Amino acid sequence: MKNFFDAFKRHPKSDRAPGPTMQALLRSVSMTDAQELSCEEVYALMDQFAEMVKRGEDASRLMPMVQKHLNMCPDCREEYEALLKMMEVPAKDEDRRS
Amino acid sequence: MPERDNLTWIQDLQTSSPGREAALADLHATLLRVLPRALTRWLSPGDPALETLVEDVAQETLLRVLDRLDTFEGRSQFTTWVYKIAVRIALSELRRARWKDVSLDEMTESADRDAEPDFVRGRDAGPESAAEQRDVLQHLQRILSEELTDRQRQALMAVGVKGLPLEEVARRMGTNRNALYKLMHDARLRLKHRLEQEGLPIQELLEMFNR
Which of B127 and A67 is assigned the larger pLDDT? Predict the structure, then answer.
């Protein structure tokens, strides 16, 4: 594999690339905890976490390991944000008002 | 759609329940209405592909909901739990479709080996700080090659640098998303410990690369 550090430019195919490699790597290293949840563990808790957030509770303090994983994992964060957006639409049919 | 509490949803969705068809139809209609909101970063409202995807995802979601009904623990509203399932199905499919023509090599190769690192070209970088940064960079490179396996470097490149989805990278590496996250977590932890061992405070390094 070529020099790991050659990839400093944002890769054109992804709009998620974080910028200069070393900075991004160091930042993620600095945020690393000894124990971190897996994607599946977070998935199991994601609906609960999302509802907490919607209720205005301090979810990141109440479920810090879920928050940490969401900070570290772009896939889970993307799914979480999509879930929040779905929750914005009322589940009930609001057209039946007459 | 009638309001159902969690217990009613579970009861209505039982195989033998007379309310099952209505409950499924209500869920289906809700998903068709609500899913597009979640997918705006991928598909715009007018896109015909959106309608097809939403229908496919809604059907797949209902199947999975029924299959996993006994795993619902009531920690959230039933609809939230259903939405979560729908999101996972939708995004998995979108990621698969978007990256299907991209090989592992393309995902892990370096973008531009001759490029001068951005952070060496700092605003106020005089020759000394540029040289200092290069020294530190070389040292960090050595640490990375000593501490990490090839697979870990691959993963960090594809996911951390290039922003590719874990699922897609994992599949090509012959593993799964969970294992890949663990692999990367282990890599980050090794680096953290090694930097601590060497007395290299990460915050100072970050500041150096910010100048």
Answer: A67
